[in-house]
């Protein structure tokens, strides 16, 4: 993406943001967790062709973390989530 | 040479003479001349030698595409003579020749062209195999153009600009100006980019009537309207490099006059882009069509109308469109001698222009084209051939004005991903499908009538504004005002060129008609294959001059449909850009603390640490012996303003602290600090600091220097799935910090504070609020350097006076400032870890011996990194942090020296190592394989500069090295 729309600041250059990986949901409870499942949550990406949900932080702006839906085939943002 | 009389369109000022050097001789020209025009006016026709055959080359288009007109100016190679204005004292020399420019020894290559067939580099020189190694260097050295003097300071300043706009218009000719005016009328913000130094495009050198005015006047009228429109921003001397995703346009602007830059990088995010790039002339392909004296029609027209320079003494026109006929007439009116005008079209010539040529008794030959010229540095004669009958006539002349009509300039729009297709009516390749919100307009679409060109630009400007949501209905007008009658030049090359051995298709790479035929015979008939195999359009011109000729030739040679040979995508940058410009200005940007002046006054040597400049030491002694001893035995002060400082508060503040820090955050005692560590998901150290509870749901914490921003992101990232109610305030720049350390620190501080500093009232690891030097501040007892010490956090504006007050209060104790280097050694004697020095992604909290910080029984808070510690806890073969002393008192290995086992295996490295005054030898802490981590183990160090078999020997020992029981800091 060349631009990302921040839920608070609006459309800005992608350079102002930090990527926070795909949205794979919160870390499951450590109780009864296996190392494989732990690493999967920490590092694994689905790398799907199509729309994926991912986290971005507006580090050179408001500092908010928010979800973005991006189409990996066109590399364009299709939807902006709320600020977290 | 005397200049012709000055018409309306002139660019030069004959009252301002300019002198410059060319090939070590003195020449002169006038203000407004480019290097090419001034040299041509002085009778210099050859200005370079071509890449492969070293043939003489001269000016051609006056727009500088390609390598043929590149020269070295003031030691800067590959400068375009056709677009570089002359300046007093400028020194220019030619490139790419051996011996002399007029008698290039490498010209022998021209005679050997028969042996240098297409792709000969790939096919010769490898049978027998040893040959390749012998020829590779000579071939490599003969390639390339221009020499760079790497010892010379070019002193070029570069800048950068990042812009946003609704509409970006590329091209400031009539269509581009109209597009900008229309878009701006409807309310859009417009940026208009123009590559030449003035708006006007192809009107600027013409006096033909447009809307009742001479074209140049119409151009001025439009330019005035553009400049007086406040929401249009014009950038001239600006060369677009490419159009990227989401309509990002990158370009570079050349500085002129008193611009504070040599070149400026420009990046524009636009909602819509209008491409109004106009046309290039299609070079006519005939034998020896690259000779100095062969030039394009616009070039001849501009030489006369803008620079008052006669192209030659006896001209022959061999062209294929009506603009060229207009040029021939204008030249004749200015007194230039035109022997004849040949036109490669059978019909379609403008009847008015033909009549005027007739009136002046200039012979007009329909369906003819020049097929060969004679002469090397100067043309002597030319042969013209009837396209149908092949009858030929030879004519004496010294200048050929030649083209095969025009082609659309689609270089920039092709970088946006637009695919072009052949249009039969116009003979142009134009985009078939355009990317979203990108518009293609003007002369490049094939329009010839001036009013139509302007109207099409206007329409596209409105279309572009509409994409930004501006209402354009009220501004719409008719798109096509006059009927167009297309009469394109259809020949792919001149008749009667035989094998075409010297009929050049690409001037940059010396590719000829013959080599293209050879390429097709070798099976390389697709444009993307042919261009690489034959080397067409790969040079600095990036297809500007070969243009659509390659496609037309391939179609003709193979006999297949033209749409199978559409031109390939041009590679950005469309025009050559200086590496300096892309590298950027690289300004030295840094932050200093409020204590900067105090530190400098005390004699500090500053060093860069991340974004900060901090005091490294305060004397010439790089070992800081005095500073260190003074802290251990007396009292010193240091600036710790760069530490990150935060307030975090709210009902859920404690929850996020528990998540982020590996320590148990509950059980804060009033007035007590906690040393806290934050881990990554792998259990490795991210940051450390201290935390304190200031009130209900109200906490204070610190981070290492330079890590404040990272930590804020970290907090928010790890609470993003929760709906926790908390707020953080970054007070890093708000508070300054001064650390006063040493046995006498209490005595000095006691003079300035209003609270009881005794050990009973304010024990180690405590935090108190106090008034110091009249200012309310936080006092923290921290033990980083292993002495009795107090860290004072107070508003930044009050720090400088506190520093002076401490120096004054400590005068009787001989208080001295100490810097980062001294602090490094002091904390090393206590084996305290520094984030980034001892911490890295191979070692977790347990490996560096800080397992005491881990609240392992916590199960509810999902502490970041805790799970990883559990998994890694009993893993074998991990690195461990150990203390060591070096055997030989003379040897002091550096940070990063490796630890070697069994001759060659690297099994660890030194993290920090310094010489100790107390121990009399070097000591430090290192990461080493578990097998050598026991006390007493022998370590072997190796570092750069040592003989490969040498080692520095050391022994693993207990830490800390100083005051093991920590009595000093608990005093």
Could you give a short account of the major beta sheet of chain B? Answer: 7 strands, mixed
Uncertain ranges of chain B:
none
Q: What structural class do you assign from the helix and strand content of chain B?
A: alpha+beta
Global outline of chain A: globular
- The strands making up the biggest β-sheet of chain A line up spatially as 3-4-5-6
What percentage of amino acids of chain B are in beta strands?
25-35%
Briefly note the structural class of the backbone of chain A: mainly beta
Helix content of chain A: 10-25%
Written as H for each helix and E for each strand, in order along the chain, the element string of chain A is EEEHEEE
Rounded mean pLDDT score of chain A: 92
* DSSP helical segment count of chain B: 23
Q: Tally the helices of chain A.
A: 1
What would you say this structure looks like, in words?
The complex is a heterodimer of chains A (84) and B (971). Chain A is mainly beta and 84 residues long. Chain A has one helix spanning 35-43, and strands at 3-6, 10-13, 18-22, 51-57, 65-71, 76-83. Chain A is globular and about 40 Å long. The model of chain A has no long low-confidence stretch (mean pLDDT 92). Helix content of chain B is 21%, strand content 27%. Chain B contains 23 helices and 49 strands. In chain B, strand 40 and strand 41 (775-780) form a beta hairpin. In chain B, strands 8, 9, 12, 13, 14, 15 and 28 form a seven-stranded mixed sheet that branches. Chain B has a six-stranded mixed sheet with strand order 40-41-42-39-33-43. Chain B has a six-stranded antiparallel β-barrel with strand order 44-47-46-45-48-49. The chains are: A mainly beta (84), B alpha+beta (971). At the A-B interface, helix 1 of A face helix 19 and helix 23 of B.
């Amino acid at each position: 993406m060349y631009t990302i729309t921040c839920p608070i600041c609006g459309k800005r250059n992608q350079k102002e943001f930090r990527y926070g990986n795909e949205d794979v949901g919160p870390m499951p409870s450590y109780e009864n967790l296996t190392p494989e499942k732990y690493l999967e949550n920490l590092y694994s990406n689905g790398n799907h062709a199509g729309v994926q949900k991912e986290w971005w932080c507006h580090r050179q702006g408001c500092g908010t973390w928010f979800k973005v839906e991006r189409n990996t085939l066109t590399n364009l943002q299709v939807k902006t989530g709320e600020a977290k | 040479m005397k200049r012709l009389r000055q018409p309306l369109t002139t660019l030069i000022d004959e009252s301002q003479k300019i002198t410059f050097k060319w090939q070590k001789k003195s020449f002169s020209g006038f203000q407004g001349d480019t290097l090419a025009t001034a040299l041509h006016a002085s009778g210099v026709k050859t200005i370079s030698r071509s890449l492969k055959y070293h043939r003489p080359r001269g000016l051609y288009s006056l727009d500088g595409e390609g390598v043929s007109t590149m020269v070295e100016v003031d030691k800067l190679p590959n400068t375009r003579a056709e677009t570089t204005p002359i300046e007093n004292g400028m020194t220019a020399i030619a490139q790419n020749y051996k011996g002399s420019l007029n008698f290039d020894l490498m010209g022998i290559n021209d005679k050997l062209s028969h042996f240098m067939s297409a792709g000969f580099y790939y096919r010769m020189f490898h049978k027998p195999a040893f040959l390749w190694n012998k020829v590779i260097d000579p071939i490599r050295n003969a390639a390339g153009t221009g020499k760079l003097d790497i010892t010379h300071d070019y002193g070029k300043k570069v800048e950068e600009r990042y812009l946003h706009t609704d509409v970006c218009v590329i091209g400031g000719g009539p269509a581009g100006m109209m597009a900008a005016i229309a878009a701006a009328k409807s309310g859009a913000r417009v940026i208009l980019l123009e590559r030449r130094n003035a708006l006007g495009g192809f009107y600027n050198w013409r006096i033909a009537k447009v809307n009742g005015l001479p074209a140049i006047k119409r151009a001025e009228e439009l330019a005035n309207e553009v400049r007086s429109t406040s929401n249009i921003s014009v950038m001239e001397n600006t060369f677009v490099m490419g159009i990227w995703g989401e309509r990002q346009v990158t370009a570079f602007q050349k500085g002129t006059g008193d611009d504070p830059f040599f070149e400026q990088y420009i990046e524009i995010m636009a909602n819509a882009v209008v491409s109004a790039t106009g046309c290039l002339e299609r070079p006519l392909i005939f034998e020896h069509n690259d000779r100095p004296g062969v030039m394009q029609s616009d070039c001849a027209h501009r030489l006369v109308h803008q620079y008052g320079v006669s192209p030659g003494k006896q001209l022959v026109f061999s062209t294929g469109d009506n603009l060229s006929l207009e040029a021939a007439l204008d030249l004749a009116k200015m007194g230039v001698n035109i022997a004849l005008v040949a036109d490669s079209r059978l019909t379609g010539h403008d009847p008015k222009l033909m009549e005027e040529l007739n009136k002046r008794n200039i012979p007009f030959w329909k369906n003819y084209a020049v097929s060969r010229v004679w002469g090397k540095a100067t043309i002597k004669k030319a042969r013209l051939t009837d396209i149908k009958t092949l009858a030929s006539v030879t004519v004496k002349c010294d200048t050929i004005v030649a083209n095969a009509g025009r082609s659309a300039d689609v270089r920039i729009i092709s970088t946006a991903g637009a695919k072009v297709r052949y249009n039969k009516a116009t003979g142009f390749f134009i985009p078939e499908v355009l990317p979203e919100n990108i518009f293609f307009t003007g002369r490049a679409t094939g329009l010839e009538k001036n009013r139509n060109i302007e109207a099409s630009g206007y329409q596209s400007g409105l279309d572009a504004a509409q994409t930004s949501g501006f209402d354009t209905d009220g501004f719409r007008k008719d798109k096509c005002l006059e009927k167009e009658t297309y009469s394109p030049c259809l020949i792919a090359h001149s008749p009667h060129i035989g094998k075409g051995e010297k009929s050049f298709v690409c001037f940059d790479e010396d590719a000829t008609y013959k080599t293209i035929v050879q390429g097709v015979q070798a099976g390389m008939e697709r444009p993307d294959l042919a261009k690489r195999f034959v080397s067409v359009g790969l040079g600095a011109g990036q297809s500007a001059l070969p243009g659509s000729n390659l496609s037309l030739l391939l179609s003709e040679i193979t006999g297949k449909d033209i749409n199978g040979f559409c031109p390939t995508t041009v590679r950005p940058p469309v025009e050559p850009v200086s590496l300096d410009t892309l590298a950027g200005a690289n300004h030295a940007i840094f932050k200093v603390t409020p204590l900067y002046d105090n530190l400098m006054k005390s004699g500090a040597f500053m060093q860069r640490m991340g974004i900060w400049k901090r005091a490294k030491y305060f004397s010439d002694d790089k070992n800081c012996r005095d500073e260190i001893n003074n802290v251990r035995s007396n009292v010193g002060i240091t600036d710790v303003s760069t530490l990150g400082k935060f307030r975090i508060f709210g009902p859920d503040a404690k929850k996020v602290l528990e998540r982020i820090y590996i320590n148990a955050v509950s059980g804060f005692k009033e007035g007590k600090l906690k040393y806290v560590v934050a881990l990554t998901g792998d259990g490795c150290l991210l940051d450390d600091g201290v935390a304190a509870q200031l009130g209900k749901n109200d906490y204070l914490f610190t981070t290492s220097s330079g890590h404040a921003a990272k930590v804020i992101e970290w907090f928010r990232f790890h609470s993003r799935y929760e709906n926790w109610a908390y707020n953080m305030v970054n007070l890093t720049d708000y508070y300054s910090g001064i650390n006063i350390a040493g046995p006498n620190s209490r005595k000095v501080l006691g003079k300035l504070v209003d609270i009881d500093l005794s050990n009973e009232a304010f024990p180690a690891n405590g935090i108190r609020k106090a008034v110091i030097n009249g200012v309310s501040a936080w006092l923290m007892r921290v033990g980083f350097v292993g002495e009795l010490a107090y860290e004072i956090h107070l508003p930044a504006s009050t720090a400088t006076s506190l520093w002076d007050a401490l120096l004054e209060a400590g005068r009787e104790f001989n208080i001295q400032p100490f810097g980062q280097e001294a602090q490094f050694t002091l904390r090393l004697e206590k084996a305290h870890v520094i984030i980034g020095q001892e911490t890295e992604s191979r070692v977790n909290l347990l490996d560096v011996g800080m397992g005491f910080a881990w609240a392992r029984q916590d199960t509810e808070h999902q502490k970041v990194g805790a799970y990883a510690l559990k998994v890694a806890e009993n893993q074998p073969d991990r690195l461990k942090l150990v203390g060591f002393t070096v055997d030989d008192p003379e040897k002091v290995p550096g940070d990063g020296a490796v630890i070697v086992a069994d001759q060659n295996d690297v099994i660890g490295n030194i993290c920090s190592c310094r010489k100790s005054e107390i121990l009399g030898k070097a000591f430090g802490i290192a990461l080493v394989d578990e097998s050598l981590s026991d006390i007493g183990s022998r370590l072997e160090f190796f570092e750069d500069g040592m003989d490969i078999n040498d080692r520095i020997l050391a022994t693993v020992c207990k830490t800390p090295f100083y005051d093991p029981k920590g009595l000093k800091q608990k005093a």
